[in-house]
Amino acid sequence: MEILAFGVQADEKPLLERAFAGGHEVRSVSVFLDEDTAPIAAGYETVSSSVNCDLSHRVLQILASGGTRMIAQRSTGFNNIDLKVAERLGLTVARVSAYSPYSVAEFAWTLAMAVNRRIVRAASRTRDFDFRLDGLMGRDFHGRTAGVFGTGKIGEAFTRIAHGFGMRLLGWDIAENPACVELGMKYVPKEQLLAESDLVSLHVPLMPQTQHLIDAAALRTMKDDAVLVNSSRGGLIDSEALVGELRAGRFTGVGLDVYESEAGLFYLDKSLEAIEDDTLARLVTFPNVLVTSHQAYYTVDAVHQIIDTTVENVLDYRAGRRSENVLVPRS
């Protein structure tokens, strides 16, 4: 069976093709799946997608009419897939339900440390042989408060690092994680977490209930000198409201590995084009904001796990097996 994989990064391509070698042939393309590129999947029973691919109603219709019967998403998130339409069209859909939580948690801390200690500005200066310390003063995280939204596997890994820094721990989730409680975390209402935290990190999935979890009101509740980090999903933060608060001079730093309108931008080279997204263009101009291109997961350990699970999902589909990774079962 031939598999067409969309949105494959250069580093990912040999790993993906090697993993399927001897069993199935994989054609890897760098373009993302959308309404314009979906027709090239004609004749491929299985399509593999990435998180920034568009699997909305029309795209799924094109895939189904071209003979596609299985979609293997190479990510944990699946908010880009219309599951109801997929089920109606008889498409099996599977995802990667888990991979190294340390990859994302460690990167979230990388963002937090970078904006707190002004690393980007410092590195830029030293390249110009400007070795002044003016404007580079940060703060100790030790003894301060970390607020963690979402204390699943990634949130727990983030919390363990915060505990190692000697921070007071506050958590918010639909259920308490005993491991986090054992570390000393206190679960509190959203408003209390925002008001008391010096560092706020987001680790919840994007759902209708969490869309703009950090809205204008939430941002106003936060401390003026807080650090805000989002390595989960861009839609958790109201970006326009965030720009408004930053323009008012608030927050020590903001680290964003995700952006709510990143599709069509992230993972692509737009350096020679005019960016039409005014909100993103404004965000990257703030000296206390660091934006990266959804790379928190991008370690060799996590990518290997993602690919291995994708292979298992395809094999399970072929064998008629169902696992916890299946979002829409084979009809």
UniProtKB/TrEMBL annotation:
Keywords: NAD, Oxidoreductase. It comes from the Bacteria. Residues 8-327 form the D-isomer specific 2-hydroxyacid dehydrogenase catalytic domain. GO terms for molecular function: D-lactate dehydrogenase (NAD+) activity; NAD binding. CDD domains: LDH_like_2. SUPFAM superfamilies: Formate/glycerate dehydrogenase catalytic domain-like (SSF52283), NAD(P)-binding Rossmann-fold domains (SSF51735). The keyword Transferase does not apply. Residues 110-296 form the D-isomer specific 2-hydroxyacid dehydrogenase NAD-binding domain. The keyword Oxidoreductase applies. It holds the Pfam family 2-Hacid_dh_C. Gene3D superfamilies: NAD(P)-binding Rossmann-like Domain. Belongs to the D-isomer specific 2-hydroxyacid dehydrogenase family. This is Hydroxyacid dehydrogenase. It comes from Streptomyces mangrovisoli.
